[in-house]
Amino acid sequence: MRMKLNTLPPKLLIINDISGVGRCSMSVSLPVVSACKVQGIPVPTSVFSNHTGFPTHLKIDLTRQLKDYFAALNTLSMNWDGIYCGYLGAKEQLHAISHYYDSLTEKPLFIIDPVMGDHGRAYQHITPEFCNHMKDFLSRGDIITPNLTEACLLTDMPYPEHDCTDSELSAISKKLHALGVKKCIITGCPKGDTFLNYISDNCGNVNTVSTKKAGPGYPGTGDIFVSIVSALTLRGFSLKECTTQAAHFIASCISYSQSLSDDTLQGVIFEPLLSDLVTLSSQERESK
Ligand code: PXL
Known about the structure:
Blueprint: E1 11-21, H1 26-35, E2 39-50, E3 59-61, H2 63-74, E4 82-85, H3 91-103, E5 109-112, E6 117-118, E7 121-122, H4 128-138, E8 143-144, H5 148-155, H6 166-178, E9 183-191, E10 194-201, E11 206-212, H7 221-234, H8 239-260, H9 274-280
Parallel strand pairs: 1-2, 1-4, 4-5, 5-8, 8-9
Antiparallel strand pairs: 2-3, 6-7, 9-10, 10-11
Helix pairs in contact: 1-7, 1-9, 2-3, 3-4, 5-6, 7-8
The protein binds 3-hydroxy-5-(hydroxymethyl)-2-methylisonicotinaldehyde (PXL).
């Protein structure tokens, strides 16, 4: 199979923190989007020694540098095909990114992962005030990818104690579209022995992709998921195809990781499996 493209790789600006140990955020996004034949351009929002699931971490905050970073990018007069925005630590970061995005005359596809919590709970630094700022920020999103916890936080709905029904997911996704979002994937909704990804758009179209639960939860799998969805969308795959491929890749990474180690804190061992992404992204797609 031919592995080379005869066009320039799409350019994806990745706005996220970079965490050293624990395979998450920028540390997984860059290799994953490269394997999907997309050029990832990092905009680091903070530097962590390791992700926050470890007992301690060092954080170097770059909020104050963000404005200058965007100004430096502006002087290059380049256009991006997409912007993928992940973990953000403060409302000031939301403001700096909104300001930059609003100033762009040619709007790239804007993919926002509103990283705010998991397993029914908000992360420690997430306040109701930050959540309100996130709602405003999301109105710019072409594609948003909340997990079920984040979808509930954003719509002021209680996190369901039972497996979600389709009508509950439909109600949550309608509330998310009411924020101004065009397309939405609510990821990782538990349903029996599967996880359901609920895909919707603001015209009322719905699709679902479910995958068998492959093992325990690992940090960083959400970041791998959205990196694949962002990159493959820019390569012309439909949202349903992107979601299917991303969910399968993560399930393979979880099974493979479990065969080698019990240490979930290190994130999924994805490096030896990256060639799967190279192969699948070698197909040219025409429809978006
Ligand atoms: O994977 C999301 C994420 C990103 N960055 C940092 C994190 C986490 C999740 O815990 O701690 C620093």
